[in-house]
Design a protein that fits this description.
It is built from five helices and seven strands; from the N terminus they run H-H-E-E-E-E-H-E-E-H-E-H. The protein is α+β, with helices and mostly antiparallel strands and about 160 residues long. It is elongated. The protein starts with 6 loop residues before the first helix and ends in a 10-residue tail after the last helix.
Length: about 160
């Protein structure tokens, strides 16, 4: 018995069966191979995208924790923080160390000031990267004006 198929249909079916059109029989990354390697773990990114969880290498590395060197004009601090944290959370951590409130801080990474809602891993911050911490100049000026302003005391007569 002879079966007649068009080449186009058979190529399309072979891609579906094999998971990829390569056909070399090696590790293709298809669903069967993934099941043999172990259970696939998924994570939900802050942007709402569902992706396969990345495994961190190393024996002593905590999962998802990175070390960032935050530099000011004259000092630097090594901060360990989760990679999925936001720059606002980093500012809160830095406020305990630098005695600057979070609203007084400006964080720059790769030459750009970052917003409080931006996530570290989404911007590209990785282990041992550097972030520049500056004091907001507008708040610095208002603090200096408050210190220079003479205190006016009212006399209250009763």
């Amino acid at each position: 018995m002879i079966k007649l198929k068009s080449n186009r249909l058979s190529k399309g079916l072979s891609k579906l069966r094999n998971g990829s059109g390569g056909g070399n029989g090696g590790n293709r990354g298809d669903a069967t191979t993934m099941r043999l390697m172990g259970e696939v773990k998924w994570e939900l990114r802050p942007g709402g995208m569902l992706v396969q969880r990345r495994e961190m290498g190393g024996d002593n590395v905590m999962e998802g924790v990175i070390t960032i060197r935050v530099t000011t004009v004259s000092k630097w601090h090594d901060i360990s923080i989760r990679a999925t944290s936001t720059f606002g959370e980093l500012k809160m951590t830095l406020s305990t160390i630098t005695n600057l409130e979070a609203k007084e801080q400006r964080l720059l990474f790769k030459g750009k000031e970052r917003e409080d809602g931006e996530h570290l891993h989404m911007v590209g911050v990785r282990d041992n990267d550097k972030v520049l911490l500056l004091q907001d100049p507008a708040i610095k000026v208002t603090k200096l004006r408050k210190l220079a302003k003479p205190h006016i005391y009212r006399t209250i007569t009763v």
